[in-house]
């Protein structure tokens, strides 16, 4: 009997034989932990971790977008600058061309005006010369007539005669001048 | 056997060396407890390890409840610590063995298993508790059983009846004449021995650790008489050293247990060759 009790006690003490109540409690204890964590707490934190990941990636994406935009703006600016340079060069060459044309035009105009002035001067001189010649002819005729009248002693005031003689005289003078030239 | 194997304290408080009192060495009786409620002979009782098991559950839940109940994108200190632990098991154990795609499903199981075991182990050095719940075979056995059932279920679900048996017995035509022997060994190893070793590995580590701690603690007290005080000092230092060492072993064994669990699951999901 006592031997049986000892065996029973030893059996109870075998550390590798799990007592049923402890198995049950162990299962319950673990299931509680697993249940609460799997049902609520881990989904909670997973959601937040995902949100955080998205926030970080969103930040990176934003930065990338900003960089792309800055790049495009820079390129646009550079293009505009190049265009402006090109335009300025074009304007400059155009201005040069225009200036040259203007100068040429002015030169032509000046030439024309000079020629006009010269022509006008020539005409004036011609007119003066003619007027002078006319006046001279009259004076010379009068003087000659007067002189001849004094020499002849008779008035040669007969107009008709007088003018015929003068004309003939002057005509002779001119012919001589022509011949002398 | 000591006079009262189920005493609450592990040893008599008035027993010292040179008092004609034998050394009350720790033994199997150190792992037996008088029921706090009920009768040890019936299967209806409640003892200290059970209390610690349930309390440990509450501690784990309480910790994660405080940390993850209202988690924030910018975490507080507690959430950060809990996240570090969660991420360590999720990445370092589950994703590492099962991969991200296959492993995701098992993350809650493995994470709760790790922290549950760790807490059960930690009771070993918590003042007043000072008993690792996992040094009672029932607790590791339950956890190993859960993993075992999951492993068997997954194997049959993934490979079908014939494929599952091929997977379990490591069927491989290239082995030629030794194939039957190899299959027999694999069969025993995978199906019968493995759940046992899985549970016992944890159990034995905690059992031994607790025995050592109790040994040095008792010795420190027992030697506290006359010249023995010098030895008591050495023993006390050893108690401290062993406590620190146990702190390491507790985390390590919890880690090993879940790592093995993942390896078994991975074996069930893998293609047999």
UniProtKB/TrEMBL annotation, chain A:
Keyword terms: ATP synthesis, Cell membrane, CF(0), Coiled coil, Hydrogen ion transport, Ion transport, Membrane, Transmembrane, Transmembrane helix, Transport
Entry's family note: Belongs to the ATPase B chain family.
NCBIfam families: ATP_synt_b, PRK05759.1-3
Function as written in the Swiss-Prot or TrEMBL entry: F(1)F(0) ATP synthase produces ATP from ADP in the presence of a proton or sodium gradient. F-type ATPases consist of two structural domains, F(1) containing the extramembraneous catalytic core and F(0) containing the membrane proton channel, linked together by a central stalk and a peripheral stalk. During catalysis, ATP synthesis in the catalytic domain of F(1) is coupled via a rotary mechanism of the central stalk subunits to proton translocation. Component of the F(0) channel, it forms part of the peripheral stalk, linking F(1) to F(0).
Protein name: ATP synthase subunit b
UniProt entry tagged with the keyword Membrane: yes
Organism phylogeny: Bacteria, Bacillati, Actinomycetota, Actinomycetes, Kitasatosporales
Membrane topology listed for this record: Single-pass membrane protein
Gene3D superfamilies, sorted: F1F0 ATP synthase subunit B, membrane domain
Coiled coil (UniProt feature): 46-101
Subunit comment: F-type ATPases have 2 components, F(1) - the catalytic core - and F(0) - the membrane proton channel. F(1) has five subunits: alpha(3), beta(3), gamma(1), delta(1), epsilon(1). F(0) has three main subunits: a(1), b(2) and c(10-14). The alpha and beta chains form an alternating ring which encloses part of the gamma chain. F(1) is attached to F(0) by a central stalk formed by the gamma and epsilon chains, while a peripheral stalk is formed by the delta and b chains.
Chain ranges passing through the membrane: 23-42
Subcellular location: Cell membrane
CDD domains linked to this entry: ATP-synt_Fo_b
Matching InterPro entries: ATP_synth_B-like_membr_sf, ATP_synth_b/b'su_bac/chlpt, ATP_synth_F0_bsu_bac, ATP_synthase_B_chain
UniProtKB/TrEMBL annotation, chain B:
InterPro entries to which the protein is assigned, alphabetical: ATP_synth_F0_asu, ATP_synth_F0_asu_AS, ATP_synth_F0_asu_bact/mt, F0_ATP_A_sf
Superkingdom to which the source organism belongs: Bacteria
Record's bilayer topology term: Multi-pass membrane protein
Membrane spanning residue stretches: 50-68, 106-125, 137-156, 177-196, 202-224, 254-270
UniProt entry keywords in alphabetical sequence: ATP synthesis, Cell membrane, CF(0), Hydrogen ion transport, Ion transport, Membrane, Transmembrane, Transmembrane helix, Transport
CDD domains: ATP-synt_Fo_a_6
Subcellular location: Cell membrane; Membrane
Pfam families the UniProt entry points to: ATP-synt_A (PF00119)
Function, in words: Key component of the proton channel; it plays a direct role in the translocation of protons across the membrane.
Family: Belongs to the ATPase A chain family.
Listed name of the protein: ATP synthase subunit a
Gene name tied to this protein: atpB
């Amino acid at each position: 009997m006592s031997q049986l009790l000892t065996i029973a006690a030893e059996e109870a003490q075998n550390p590798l034989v799990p007592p049923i109540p402890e198995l049950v409690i162990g299962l319950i204890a673990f299931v509680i932990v697993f249940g609460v964590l799997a049902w609520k707490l881990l989904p909670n934190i997973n959601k937040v971790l995902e949100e955080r990941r998205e926030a970080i990636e969103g930040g990176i994406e934003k930065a990338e977008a900003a960089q792309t935009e800055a790049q495009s703006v820079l390129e646009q600016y550079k293009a505009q600058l190049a265009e402006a340079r090109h335009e300025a060069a074009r304007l400059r060459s155009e201005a040069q061309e225009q200036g040259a044309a203007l100068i040429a035009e002015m030169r032509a105009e000046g030439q024309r005006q000079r020629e006009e002035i010269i022509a006008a001067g020539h005409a004036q001189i011609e007119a003066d010369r003619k007027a002078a010649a006319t006046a001279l002819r009259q004076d010379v005729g009068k003087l000659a007539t007067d002189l001849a009248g004094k020499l002849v002693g008779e008035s040669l005031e007969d107009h008709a005669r007088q003018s015929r003689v003068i004309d003939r005289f002057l005509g002779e003078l001119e012919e001589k001048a022509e011949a002398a030239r | 056997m000591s006079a009262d194997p189920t005493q609450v304290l592990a040893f008599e408080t008035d027993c010292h060396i040179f008092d004609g009192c034998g050394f009350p060495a720790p033994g199997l009786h150190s792992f037996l407890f008088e029921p706090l409620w009920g009768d040890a002979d019936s299967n209806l009782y409640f003892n200290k390890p059970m209390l610690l098991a349930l309390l440990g559950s509450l501690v784990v839940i309480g910790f994660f409840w405080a940390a993850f109940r209202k988690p924030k994108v910018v975490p507080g200190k507690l959430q950060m610590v809990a996240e570090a632990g969660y991420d360590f098991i999720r990445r370092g154990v589950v994703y590492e063995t099962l991969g991200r795609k296959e492993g995701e499903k098992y993350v809650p199981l493995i994470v709760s298993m790790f922290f549950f075991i760790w807490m059960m182990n930690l009771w070993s050095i918590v003042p007043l508790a000072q008993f690792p719940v996992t040094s009672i075979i029932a607790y590791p056995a339950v956890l190993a059983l859960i993993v075992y059932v999951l492993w068997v279920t997954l194997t049959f679900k993934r490979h079908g009846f014939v494929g599952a048996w091929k997977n379990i017995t490591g069927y491989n035509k290239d082995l030629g004449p030794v194939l039957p022997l190899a299959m027999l060994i694999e069969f025993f190893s995978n199906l019968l021995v493995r759940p046992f070793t899985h549970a016992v590995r944890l159990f034995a580590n905690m059992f031994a650790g607790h025995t050592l701690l109790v040994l040095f603690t008792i010795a420190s007290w027992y030697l506290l008489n006359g010249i023995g005080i010098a030895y008591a000092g050495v023993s006390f230092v050893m108690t401290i050293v062993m406590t620190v060492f146990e702190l390491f072993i507790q985390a390590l064994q919890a880690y090993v247990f879940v790592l093995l669990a993942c390896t078994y699951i991975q074996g069930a999901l893998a293609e047999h060759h």
